[in-house]
Amino acid sequence: MAQTPVTALAGAAPVSDAEVVEFAAANKKVTEVANTLSVELKSATSEADAAAILVKGEKKMAAAIQTEGTAPARYTEIIRMAEGDQATLDNLRAKFGG
User: I need a labelling partner for 74 at 20 to 30 A (CA). Which of 5, 16, 39, 80 fits?
Assistant: First the structure.
């Protein structure tokens, strides 16, 4: 059963069912990038190396999000909406399977 879109942030567009699917796929890829990034950061030998790794990671995350059809700004907006609105959070959790 499709859930009614919810707007938790002033001026934010409701999260559609299609966006929930895109968000879930993007979040999986972002998590994979973040896990790889964590390992790479542990091997950084200087602050400059760490900074370069972070920049590369941010670009990879943005690309992963866009690959799934969501703009990085919208992805962040959906996260913020879920943090402030239980219905949005429940809708996302349902797509993640828990």
Answer: 39
Residue 9: predicted pLDDT: 59
Question: Number of folded domains in the chain?
Answer: 1
| Residue 60, domain member (yes or no) | yes
CA–CA distance from 37 to each of 1, 57, 67, 76, 82 (Å)?
37, 6, 19, 19, 25
- Residue 74 domain flag: yes
Assigned domain for 54 exists: yes
Distances (CA, A) of 23 to 11, 34, 59, 68: 19, 16, 17, 8
pLDDT of residue 10: 62
CB 72 within 8 A of CB 66: yes
CA distances from 25 to 30, 76, 80 (A): 9, 14, 17
Q: How many CB atoms lie within 10 A of CB 68?
A: 17
Residue 96 corresponds to which tokens in the numbers above?
């993640």
Q: Structural domain of residue 54, as residue ranges?
A: 17-96
